[in-house]
Input
Amino acid sequence: MFGKKKEIPVYLFTGFLESGKTQFIAETLKDGQFKDGNKTLYIICEEGIEEIPQPVLDENRFIVSIIEDEEEVSFDTFMGLDLDHDPDRVMIEYNGTWDPDRVIEAFPENWLMAEGICTIDATTYEAYLSNMKQMMTRQFTYADLVIFNRCDLAQDLPMYKRTVRALNRRSQVVFEMKDGTINNNVKEELPYDINADTIRVEDDDFGIWYIDVFDNLETYRGKTVSFKGVVYKPKRSRDDMFVPGRFAMTCCAADIQFVGFPCQWKDAKRLKDKTPVYVTARIDSTETDEGSAPVLYALSVEITDPPEEEVVYFQ
Output
């Protein structure tokens, strides 16, 4: 009788050609992180200028399989590689022009996503974001770690971080400067006074405030904020709860979604969906399955005119 197949962790590397995927993998091998005797199936979906020497691959028990066509990314292909090589783990260096959903959906049942890592060349990021935003932003859809390399202080690094966090709040964002050092001091230049008795968030600054609260929740806990939003009433929510927020474009027009924070207010049941409101509230935190998350306690809620711009942008 056949037993259950062993679970295989998968490490997925995304990013455009020459963004630093292979270099990152090579440095990881150099650090000795894969010298544990386990066998790694290394699936390469695009070949750049840099290659890992075969002796290094052999020393780390890497078995290389090359996929040259997106149509080959399938359950059958991965299942065949699994049966042929019986790996202990899988590393996929994915093609930046291919759909990342496709590779995730092709995993056999025993292939489990262990970590997603996205590398981005900071010197080309703004150009790609302006001209091919959807293709650019889908690179970090499944990334637990996003590494911007070739950075310098003249670039708008806070904006780079904001665009990633708007789409994927679980991502850790790291900036590697051109000299190879890591910059951990990239801070958002806030357009409001965070130390004011009441933080007043203008309509155009909602996106910056929304991301910064998630990134620096402890800084905001106990503070009072006022902002304009629209009402969303989730199904099966309590009578004293609603979500004030805004519609936001995280990638393209097809990806507009509502973003906001749960808010407790004694008269919330009187509010109707999409009503524009001006909210003054105290910011606190609550524990969820994913950790601490913001929650608001309304001091006042007033019906008002809608924001001049219906959609929030994170750039």
User: Anything to note?
Assistant: The CA atoms of residues 35 and 59 lie 8 Å apart. The chain has a mean pLDDT of 92.
